[in-house]
Specification:
Layout (H helix, E strand, L loop, with lengths): L1 E4 L6 H9 L4 E5 L17 H13 L3 E5 L5 H11 L2 E6 L2 H17 L3 H11 L12 H21 L5 E3 H4 L3 H8 L34 H7 L2 E3 L2 E3 L1 H8 L4
Parallel strand pairs: 1-3, 1-4, 2-3, 4-5
Antiparallel strand pairs: 6-7
Organism: Pseudooceanicola nanhaiensis
Protein name: Sulfotransferase family protein
Length: about 240
Amino acid sequence: MIVAESIGFAATHTISSILAELPGFRVTHGSQNFETAGAIGTPAQTPEDFAASMVAAGDRGERPVALHTLFDPRRMQPVCAGQGIRYALLLRDPQAQVESCYAWAAKKTLDGDESTFVSAMKSALPVLPGLGIRATLPNLLYAYALNHVCQFNVVGLDTGAPVLKMEELLSDEALFRDAFDVGAEAEIPHFSGEARHLASHRAREGLEALAAPERATIRALFPVRAGATVTTLAELGTRLGYAA
């Protein structure tokens, strides 16, 4: 049993799809209810009930895996530890993860999603002018994406949870098998000639209406605050072992 936690934008759709086709695996993605597997925003379980449902599935002989639950790592990690469930953070190169989140946030905003736009305004507008960065829509959305991704990842890292890197999982069969406890008897089509890559948020369709954000400046200057930790995108990348 494993909860592979991620803010998203790290091939969670692809990984969950690969696992879901394996015999005996029961996989949820983007859900806070292991019983119904309903999307986030539909009736949710508590972390304690979610973990208990995973344990019950395991007791029935299933292979429970949960990805991208978005439960607060500070709460979910100790719950998993108490129930004998492995808990790990599923991450990728933070710069690529931010780019994917930016494309998602930009599309949502251009499609008229009020909540994404308001969240971007709240998190970025009070900060950008003090850094000497113009408060344009692309800059606000990029700063929001950076803060959204990095803040969650820092909170997760500060729990001491181990890290699974998306790039390694999808390119190294032995590592994938070890991470998700896939036995040698099970063929994984992704690694036997049917490589799978789903739902990229980085596609540019529909974003032509936006000017380019000031990426380099925002990456260098925008502070990410998570509890007592204050960091930058570059510092997070170094902490995770990615080249600058």
